[in-house]
Amino acid sequence: MCFLKPCFCTSLIVSSFAGQQVFRIEIADKNDHPPRFTQETYVAERVSEDANINALVTEVKALDNDTASPVRYSIIEGNYKKAFMIEETTGKIRVANQLDYEETTNYTLRVRAFDNAFEDFCYVKINIANVNDNPPVFWTYQNNTTIQEETLVDGCVAKLSAYDPDIPDRSAPQHIVYFVVKEEQQKLLHIDKDGCLYLIKVRRLNPGPRKCLSVK
Ligand SMILES: [Ca+2]
Ligand SMILES: [Ca+2]
Ligand SMILES: [Ca+2]
């Protein structure tokens, strides 16, 4: 006799007065069951925005009671800028393009399992983790300051401010350290942690009439 679970062959023994006869009966499996995902929603937490191309994100799995209907996977929605790819036969989801937390912090993919007759769907939620991958950016400085030559000005000559694009909240502490870069200017100027630029030494630009020094 045959069993309901997938089987390909069984043996039937028939007895009679004349003896025994063995029949071999082969039963082909039919694709009559749909694939079923093991979870309605899969979640991948903290996928780093600097993850390498091809890095494994997560894996989905659809079970199918038929042996004759291999399941193939595809991403059908939510794959913004083709950030991810899915291996058609394994269900492994990998990074396909450079991620950027500053642009997209999470994805919800719709994934299909198809066995050439039946299909099932699941969601894959992917949360991107931020890393420090952007240099600070100065806010545009509007007020150019002009100082008379050989005049030492007290206090802030100019208040500069920058933000870190890696910190979405511009009002949150930006943890930026300011420097006067050029060595010859370090003798004349100092900038503190708040971006206040101070004149620490007077400068004579050229011999002759007094001139002005512009801080830009
Ligand atoms: Ca099937
Ligand atoms: Ca980024
Ligand atoms: Ca970042």
Structure description:
By secondary structure, the protein is mainly beta. It folds into two domains: 94 residues, Sandwich (Immunoglobulin-like); 83 residues, no CATH class. Helix content is 2%, strand content 40%. The protein has a four-stranded mixed beta sheet, with no helix packed on it. It has a three-stranded antiparallel beta sheet with strand order 5-9-8, with no helix packed on it. Strand 10 and strand 11 form a beta hairpin. The longest helix is centred in the C-terminal third of the chain and has 4 residues. The termini are far apart.
Q: What is the alpha-carbon Rg in Å?
A: 35 Å
Structural class: mainly beta
Segments where pLDDT lies below 50 for 5+ residues?
1-7
Spatial strand order of the main sheet: 4-11-10-7
What kind of sheet is the major sheet? 4 strands, mixed
Number of domains: 2
CATH class of the largest domain: Mainly Beta
**Averaged pLDDT:** 86
Key features of this structure:
216 residues, mainly beta, Immunoglobulin-like, 2 domains, three-stranded antiparallel β-sheet, 1 helix, disordered N terminus, binds calcium ion
Question: How do you describe this structure in short?
Answer:
This protein is mainly β and 216 residues long. It is built from one helix and 18 strands.
Secondary structure blueprint with pairings:
Elements: E1 9-16, E2 19-26, E3 36-37, E4 41-48, E5 56-59, E6 62-63, E7 72-77, E8 84-86, E9 92-95, E10 106-114, E11 119-129, E12 137-138, E13 145-148, E14 158-159, E15 162-163, H1 183-186, E16 189-191, E17 196-199, E18 212-215
Parallel strand pairs: 4-11
Antiparallel strand pairs: 1-2, 3-6, 5-9, 7-10, 8-9, 10-11, 12-15, 13-18, 14-17, 16-17
The structure holds calcium ion (3 copies).
